[in-house]
Amino acid sequence: MRLIFEIEYHTLWGEQLAVVLGQRRVALEYTRNDLWQGTAEIRNLEQLRSYRYVVERDGRIIRTEWHAHSLRLPPEFPPRTALRIRDRWQELRPDAAFYSTAFTHGIFGRAACTDTRDETSAPAGIGVRPTQASVWLWVVEPAIHSDETLALASQALDNWQRIVPLDDIDFPVWGCACSLPAGCEYKLLIADRATLRPLQWEEGDNRRWEEPVAEGEIRLDASLVARFPERRWRSAGTAIPVFSLRSAESFGVGEFLDLKLLVDWAAATHQRVIQVLPVNDTSMTGTWEDSYPYNANSSFALHPQFLRLTEAGVVEDDAYRRLRDELNALPEVDYERVNRTKQRLLREAFARNAAYTASRPDYQAFLAENRSWLLPYAAYCTLRDEHHTADFTQWGDLSRYNQKRVEAYCLQRRDEVAYHCYVQFYLHLQLSEVRRYAHSRGVVLKGDLPIGVSRTSADAWQSPHLFHLDSQAGAPPDAFSTEGQNWGFPTYDWERMARDHYAWWQARLRKMAEYFDAYRIDHILGFFRIWEIPSEAIHGLLGHFNPALPYPAEELQRMGFDLTKGLYTTPPLDDATLGEIFGPLVDTFRRRCLQQGRLREEFATQRRAAEQLPGDDPETVRLREGLMTLLDDVLFVEDPRRKGYFHPRIDGRRTRSWQRLPEWQQESFNRLHNDFFYRRHNLFWKESAMRKLPVLLTATDMLACGEDLGMIPDCVPETMRTLQILSLEVQRMPKTMGETFADPSRYPYLSVCTTSTHDMNPLRAWWEEDRQLSTRFFREVLHADGDVPQSCEPWICQRIISMHLASPSMFAILPLQDWLAMDETLRAPDPHRERINIPAIPRYQWRYRMHLCLERLLAAVDFNTTLCDMITLNGRR
Predict the structure, then answer these.
(1) Could you give the CA distance from residue 568 to residue 553 in angstroms, rounded to a whole number?
(2) Could you give the angle at the alpha carbon of 299 between the alpha carbons of 108 and 450, nearest 5°?
(3) Taking the complete model, does pTM exceed 0.90, yes or no?
(4) Residue 592: burial class (beta carbons within 10 Å; 0-12, 13-18, 19+)
(5) Tell me: the pLDDT tens digits for 618-628?
């Protein structure tokens, strides 16, 4: 088939346009009036399923389209006919969110809609077979609900009275084969899908039908842009970790297939989104410490704990049912027992069913499609168990990943490797089944993309060159932790990642897109800059931003800080400081930790001090914590990769070193501190993010939402607005300086608002944790009179939730705990057992589980009706 591509695009001198179809490049030629043309011969119509136009200069691509084009030609298309495709450049659209699969496959998806139109009612010349028409209209328009249709009307069709629906079989692409009289006028409109009653006409002048095409050609006009006013759409959803779900069929922990019951509840209450925490495998130690969902051993593998055993070959006999009921009766997840038991049962099932599973064509396809990460992951798990450690530096000859040696090892341990592939296959089947089921109910799954990767993960083992394994990622001090957070993850070598166009990130996101249609970018600030902490530090206070523009020592000297003798970069050891920190143990400290007026080597870093002072007796704890405080007490931190360059220590004004400075020097430090953290890097960090984020965002069609809480530089909201990444809005974490509580009525439209996050207390426990704060909320936000209730009563929760549902935010996604808090009969007996995580505790056990089962929630008719009414009355659908 001969294709003729046409596109109107204004280029600069020396620039060239081309179209890329898979691995094939077709150069275009400039004709006239910014119109470019090119021809290509194709044999397979599938080549048109995804193609992009690019701008080139000196043989290099300097610009590419944000969205790919997609054309699905009918099989009966005459192969000897030339097809002239008139396109338009696909820029980032103002309503880009609606082009994500969250809408095209889920919320506005056509999977569950029933078309009641009479196919014989289309007049001659419209909706005819492609072989009978000379022109096709091809319009991309996603913001049309499943009970609506895009349609066409013309003066040639009963003088605008006949409404002709376009075909949405490839939604959000709408198509229509046409043969209207040349020169007639027409317009697009949105109509009721069942009755074709017009709902909204496009704005502007009537369109005019072009002259007939050349003999032997069919013209496909894909350049039309529907001219409808902005259609704002808002919905509600629920956030809950998968491990927290409880059903009659689950096995002591929430499972993927439990999500189908949650989908049913969401659909019954007019919710559209289910948001979960990361679901990747975290199995490394075999203890409860593996419960931390942001510390995965693979960015691609799913966690075996989420598998429904009976759907993976485990026999449901009496012994199984007794064990299931016993584990399900526990108030919280017994992480270790559940996973040990599941693994035992799965290995027994694998022994029975391995041969059958291996013979399945879909299993063989799964292996082929995922081989690049699946075999290294399976080898990693096998080596972890063999050496009883996930620390791959302890794996002898396989400490360093080598593809040929790993493949040879997989052959030697083929049964064990096959077991891990077997488990991943059934996890894939079950989560894929949930996604399809959710789409059938108009619901989408929203996943979570962790910013960090474990330093003992399969990713770090297989691709160590992508990471700075000598550093730790974390967060600067905030409301969650005055000492900052140290997550322990290695930081990324972004320069190395850029060499292959961030291929690891793209692969990671494409795998995620197999299961999710939206995702939360955990700590989106990490794509602008990450808080990097030296490997020998424990507290986050000694970190620095990377990338950053540290001050050279000469510049600091001109500001009054001479660092040549270690002053300001080493902790003060004067009597007053030591007395304040160590009190009655100051002599013990001097005797054990000092030598010739300096810290001994074994106590010179926080990591070494912690190793030298283990134990929980009061004296040891006081010495250890005192040393941590002392080592934090510096004003500047040297950059680990640029010697002689220094970062001001964050919150340096809280140090004793700063307090002992003369006033002029304090003011000098304050000026450089404020400049460094709030002004110096704004453009620099924006450029850093704009090199990475567009590549990631265009890797899939998922809807991106950013977790943009904490210490936010001005470039972050600006960049997120430019890229149309939805922000996160939390009433208790206002983004406007001087506010105690944010006003939901002022939230931006492109946002997700919520009452609580997994790092915070849900509403009821928060109400009781700070009486002064909840009293202010009662008076200033709720504008309520009388005594402040001791507990967050159902009517208070309902008022707070109503504020969020009424907000302009595109999505109001609330924790399940807060939804249930509105109902006296459904809320948990003890609100303090509903918290999921405490960020200030690095090794926290993530074990929260619903106190009631999903079956009971589905049967709560009165509550569900109330919730449905609240969502609908607030304009969410």
Answers:
(1) 12
(2) 70
(3) yes
(4) middle
(5) 999 999 999 99
